[in-house]
Amino acid sequence: MTVSNLVRKELYQMRWIMIIGLLFCTGLAVILAITFNYLEQIVEEIPVEIMELFTNYEVARELLAIFGNYSLYVWSQWNAKNLYQVGALFAIIIAAIQFAGEVSRRTIGFYLTRPISRWQGFLAKAAAGSLILLIIFGGGTIIIWAASIIIGQSADWGRLFAALVVSLVWLNVYYLVGCIISTLSREPITAGVIIGLVGIGLSLPGLLP
Amino acid sequence: MNDSCLQIKNLGKDFGSKRTLSAVTLSLEKGEIMGLVGPNGAGKTTMIKLIMGLLHPTAGSIKIFGNDRDTLSCSEWRQVGYIADEPILYDFMSVQKLINFNRGFFPQWDEEKCRDLVARFNLPLHESVKNLSRGMTTQLSLTLALAQVPRLLILDEPLDGLDPMRRLEFLNLILEDFTGQDGRSILISSHYLEELERIVDCIAFLHEGQLKRVVPMEQLKVEEKTIRVVFQKEPPETLRGMPGIKQVQKEGKTGYLITIEENFNAIYEACCSFPHFVLEIYHRNLEDMFHDYAGRDVNDRV
Which chain B residues are closer than 8 Å to A125 by Cβ? Predict the structure, then answer.
């Protein structure tokens, strides 16, 4: 009862982040789906001699493959790009305001003097943030799926939703790290900068050849 | 059987090299209302934050309902009500939402009392908490604290920001709620000594992080008296040397304030035996004692 009460409070407090996030992801998802047909058309209109020139380059070959396969297009533009980049941004914002936000607004005293254990307090904030990330990015993925049906494109949705689960797991791990950092900071901006730097640190291995 | 609601032993708190609280030992019995007084910076809020677990002590121990504060279960914490010195509540909620949120933590929540207090304070249920005045925020905090029916209520400067009428109402409400309720205790810190004097059973003087004295109000009222006397001629030197005189303060040329701890009758008779214009006896109040412990120099800061 206590934790669910706390989770409800967190969801209510962060409702605008959730609404803005969902609107942003809906916009991205719709744009992503409807631009595929235009991009596909542009690729088809490229003259053969220029296309042959393009195919000499690895990057161009990859781009042509993406624009020729809707599943690959959705994965590359949504799962591999937006979910990680925009997702990380939202994870930073939500985590930074959790504990550091309570401290800076001076409501931490009220929060901690409720009859809850520190563990319950942390769990509630962690659960609420995870739920918001799921709603924003799960919702965004469902919008792409719906938009794809409307524009008449089919994709390997089983694999794409599986990729969503993997992305959400990563986002949640990053978010939890952010929550821990937030407990150590007194200012959300400081917490956000540290969480961002940790995110950059975590992404460095991905840049290695 | 342990009858203490709150036991503090050798409590100390350092902030860096600054010692804010030093070896404070006190005990709040069940059913007792204790006032905590001291000048600004005496360590009252620090002590209360330590009790509430918002700060970690550098030394000493705190027991609530006989159990160590750090190992207190959530069900025991539910029996502790608290109003902070700055009652900052969730300003993104409406009054009603905040009440609903708080209700969820306390199975013993008294809904009827909550409704009664909301009506009594005329709290606007649908108004956002951020639009409430300081006084109303304090009243909302009190509503939340009393509706949870705590066995121990800890109030840190709850009267600040309230006008005299509201202060009186606030204290009456606490008295009404706690009088005759066996085993329910209050620790209240305040600078409003006159008002505090009306409700507390005992008083703890804190000064520069040290507990100077804990004294029951009954004892305070009978043990120390002050005689104001204005002599017709030069005041008698022999009077000053009499046993039982705690302090002699000069008022004007021949006026004196004589504070007596004991041997009252003999000193009174001695005063009467000298020609005088004025001779009056009055009980010392909390403010007098406050000045004794805190020093006259802090008067302006309080």
Answer: none
Average pLDDT across each block of 10 residues of chain B; the chain has 302 residues. List them in order.
83 91 92 90 93 94 93 91 89 95 93 94 94 91 93 91 85 80 85 85 90 84 72 71 78 75 78 77 71 54 32
Q: Report the number of distinct structural domains present in chain A.
A: 1
Q: Report the alpha-carbon distance of residue A160 to residue A152 in Å, rounded.
A: 17
Q: Are strands B245-251 and B152-156 parallel, antiparallel or unpaired?
A: unpaired
Chain B residues touching A119 at Cβ < 8 A: none
Asked whether residue A166 is domain-assigned, the answer is yes
With respect to residue A54, please indicate whether it lies within any of the assigned structural domains.
no
Beta bridge partners of B68: B63
Domain boundaries, chain B: 4-220, 225-283
Q: Write the CATH number of the domain with boundaries B225-283.
A: 3.30.70
Give the residue-averaged pLDDT of A68-97: 90
Instruction: Judge whether B115 and B187 are in contact, CB under 8 Å.
Output: no
Q: Could you report the predicted ipTM of this complex, rounded to two decimals? A: 0.82
CATH classification number, B4-220, choose in 3.90.1640.10, 3.40.50.300, 3.20.20.70, 3.40.50.620: 3.40.50.300
Distance set, CA A165 to CA A75, A172, B66, B215 (Å): 13, 10, 49, 65
B54 with A110: Cβ contact below 8 A = no
- The Cα A195–Cα B6 span in angstroms is 41
**Model-level pTM?**
0.81
- Residue A155 counted as domain residue: yes
* Strands lying side by side in the sheet with B59-64: B18-29, B4-15, B59-64, B67-68
Which is nearest to A72 in space by CA: A38, A36, A25?
A36
CB A102 within 8 A of CB A185: no
Find which of B105, B128, B143, B151 to mutate to test the A interface (most A CBs within 10 Å of its CB).
B105
CA Rg value for chain B: 22
